Amino acid sequence: MATTGDKPKKSEQFRLFVRQMLDFIFGFKNKKGEVLDYQLEHADGVSFSTQEFYTNVEQQLAARKIPGMEISRIEFPEGGLLSDQRVYLRLMRERLCIDTCAAPFGNLFFFSRRTVYVPALVRLWHIVAAVLFFGLVDYLLVKLLGASFAAIATGALVFAIVGVFRNASSGGLSDLDTILLKIPVVSTIYEDWFRVETYYREDTRNLYRQLLPQFIHEIAEETCAAKGVKLERHFQPAPPVSDLNKPQPPDKKPVAT
Mean pLDDT over residues 219-243, rounded? Predict the structure, then answer.
């Protein structure tokens, strides 16, 4: 016999299902992911310019010339759908990003850092776009070459794409590798079937994950010291159990290079 306590649970499950379906159909950009690590600090009785802090971080990290890293500013809502937006500084490399927030809270000013794994999520419109693209290519080839030669040309195109994927995964074309990891649908195929995991990729991924938050912490400390205040670090909760070397699936082993 169902109790009254089952109704909210079922209602919540239905709401989440509807939300996931709407996100799959209409979602265009995936901003959130699995939080692997979280750090929080604050300074008491002082105020800073959020934008100036972000600019300072951008300039100092740009000088370090970290390969494959992109810096951007991204908005997250403070509350519900119609709430104000809070700007975060995002450092993105492969599928790992570090989201940093610098913001006032009463007479405090806090700095937060989240190391996040953001997967490439396939949406319905990605699938529709892919089908339409290949359908258009096939239609044009048949018109120009006829059915037989169109089939040969399509096969050659497939082999050419495979060649590009293999060359990109070799490590010599890091920029192309970064681009392929961002293309919806293509990124999943490239990563699962062609991208080779190596010790070097594993080392640089862990180095990025460990050192970048420390760099930002040092900049926050310098910012507070310039105002004559001390940055207080809070308790850091343990990260969730997860594959620390994502996006590599756990059943694949890195190869030495």
Answer: 75
pLDDT over threshold 80, residue 97 = yes
| Tokens found for residue 23 | 């996100």
- Mean local confidence (pLDDT), 42-50: 90
Would you tell me how many other CB atoms lie within 10 Å of the CB of residue 96?
Answer: 22
- Confidence check: pLDDT of 157 > 50: yes
Any domain includes 139 = yes
Domain containing residue 144: 125-194
- Beta carbons within 8 Å of 198's beta carbon, 6+ residues apart: 171, 254, 255, 256, 257
- Give the contacts of 49 (CB within 8 A, at least 6 positions apart): none
Which comes out higher in pLDDT, residue 166 or 101? Answer: 101
- The residues facing 109 across adjacent strands are 43, 104
Other Cβ atoms less than 10 A from the Cβ of 115: the count is: 23
What is the DSSP-derived secondary structure letter of residue 231?
Answer: P
Buried b (16+ CB within 10 A) or exposed e, 154-164: eeeeeeeeeee
- Answer yes or no: are the C-beta atoms of 195 and 249 closer than 8 Å: no
Q: Domain count of the chain?
A: 1
Domain for residue 179, yes or no?
A: yes
Residue 87: pLDDT band (50, 70, 90) is very high
Report how far apart, in Å, the C-alpha atoms of 53 and of each of 44, 204, 228 are: 17, 26, 16
Cβ contacts of 244 within 8 Å, gap of 6 or more: 36, 206, 209
Q: How confident is the model at residue 217 (pLDDT cuts 50, 70, 90)?
A: very high
